[in-house]
Design brief:
Layout (H helix, E strand, L loop, with lengths): L10 H8 L4 E6 L5 H14 L5 E6 L2 H7 L1 H8 L6 E3 L4 E3 L5 E6 L13 E4 L9 H10 L5 E6 L6 H9 L5 E6 L1 H4 L4 H9 L3 H9 L12 H9 L3 E2 L9 E6 L5 E10 L2 E11 L3 H10 L4 E6 L14 H8 L3 E4 L6 H11 L3 E4 L3 H9 L2 E4 L4 E6 L4 H19 L30
Helix pairs in contact: 2-4, 11-12, 13-15, 14-15
Length: 432
């Protein structure tokens, strides 16, 4: 029996559907149809794999239900005896294969599923350790495949993955700008230009990773840092202790920024991020880095006692790490915390090799009110939030350290220096 799905691949996606490689990364301009292509790719894989298990993972469950589920129903609905579970967003095919639609905001819910294939949609908005730590183990049993797709926004997860794998023979890699793909007509592109700023158009249609991100909270500050050479190749300065600034999580993400305070300037030389790791494992990782630690600045919740040991996180880290421990009082007003960063940022220098960490600062956005079509003052809570909260803690400490009551003078530029690869990439990052 032959079943024809009412889907005709656009030319750029034909080679994607024909490729047999285990790994694929698709960087596509807006309105190219990559979600439809990926959905049909997964439907075909499910139909060809009896009792297979597949999933499409959106940045959030709600986003997947709103943008992907209707397509999935429409295209899979032509297959006789296919069943749809709206509550679980699950499609069961006649050969007993299952295709789930999931969200990445609760990563631990994805554990334990032995999958034959997975697609991560809008991967630029998904946690950087999601695949390596959680998804990859679910593909091992069946030697399953993975598809990463989206539109680049800053040099984050998706851009870094494509840049790292574009010349890898084990990968299928597609990078499609609107000016080159041939999918949209000149009239369509001109209409887009007319109704968008040049920076918006460059980002959405020409895949410019450093274009302006609408709603970005620190967009102006991050562009200033790049323009003024405050994001550069840095190295460890001998004889100066390393201070750390933390955003602590247990079931959530933990982020640690590594800095050196030199002549009134903060050099952010390294970053470590992980998910679902014990404090014991995190402390072990920091000891392996072999820095001469000065002070570890912890957020207010480090003073909470663990229910079993009755020991605070701060007490544990004081015994597990060299250097001093200091717990910083919480700033309840988020706007004040954000303003601290804006007040201090011209004294900050960042190691340019921390691509994911820098992307988190650049992608940190306000919530969007879809009903009124406006951005709100309140930030969205996403994976980027954990990086930002650690940097806000640093901004709070630095502002108090300087006892500043007026604006900060411009810091001078810095010459390029060398430094090893950032440590956040070593743990939970992409590695296949």
């Amino acid at each position: 029996m032959t079943i024809t799905i009412p889907y005709k691949p656009r030319k750029p996606f034909q080679s994607f559907h024909e490729n047999k490689k285990r790994w694929s990364v698709l960087v596509c301009h807006r309105a190219m149809g990559k979600s439809v292509a990926v959905i049909n790719h997964m439907i075909r894989a499910a139909c060809l794999t009896p009792k297979g298990v597949f999933s499409i993972i959106a940045p959030t469950y709600t986003q997947g239900k709103r943008t992907l589920w209707p397509y999935l129903r429409d295209y899979a609905g032509v297959i006789p005896n296919t069943k749809f579970n709206e509550a679980e967003m699950l499609v069961t095919f006649p050969n007993q294969s299952r295709l789930y639609l999931l969200g990445s905001e609760n990563p631990d819910a994805l554990r334990g599923i032995h999958q034959h294939g997975v697609a991560l949609d809008e991967y630029q908005h998904q946690p950087q350790d999601l695949f390596g730590e959680i998804i990859m183990p679910t593909l091992t049993t069946h030697n399953g495949f993975a598809v990463f797709s989206g539109t680049v926004k800053t040099k984050g997860n998706l851009w870094k993955l494509w840049n790292d794998k574009k010349d890898d023979s084990d990968w299928f890699a597609l990078f499609a700008r609107a000016s080159e793909s041939g999918v949209l007509s000149q009239a369509q592109l001109q209409a887009a230009r007319t109704n968008m700023t040049q920076e918006q158009y460059d980002q959405e249609y020409e895949l410019e990773p450093l274009a302006y991100l609408e709603g970005a909270i620190f967009g102006d500050e991050m562009r200033w840092l790049r323009k003024n050479a405050h994001i550069a190749n840095l190295r460890l300065t001998d004889g100066i202790q390393v201070d750390t600034y933390w955003d602590l999580g247990v079931a959530d993400y933990t982020v640690v920024w590594f800095t050196q305070w030199i002549n009134g300037k903060l050099y952010v030389i390294d970053c470590y991020a992980t998910h679902n790791k014990s404090l014991h494992d995190i402390a072990k990782k920091l000891r392996m880095m072999d820095y001469d630690y000065g002070t570890h600045y912890l957020p207010h919740d480090s003073a909470q006692r663990e229910p079993i040991t009755l020991q605070t996180r701060a007490d544990f880290l004081e015994n597990a790490l060299t250097g001093k421990i200091e717990t910083i009082a919480r700033i309840v007003n988020k706007q004040i915390a954000l303003d601290n960063f804006r007040f201090c940022f011209k004294r900050f220098y960042f190691n340019e090799k921390m691509e994911i960490a820098l992307s988190a600062l650049e992608q940190y956005q306000r919530k969007f009110d879809e009903r009124n079509n406006v951005f709100l003052q309140e930030p969205k809570h996403t994976w980027e939030s954990h990086y930002v909260d650690g940097m806000l803690l640093a901004s709070q400490v630095i502002r108090e350290k300087l006892q500043i009551e007026s604006s900060i003078p411009l810091a001078s530029s810095i010459q390029a220096r060398e430094f090893d690869e950032p440590h956040y990439a070593d743990d939970g990052g992409f590695n296949v």
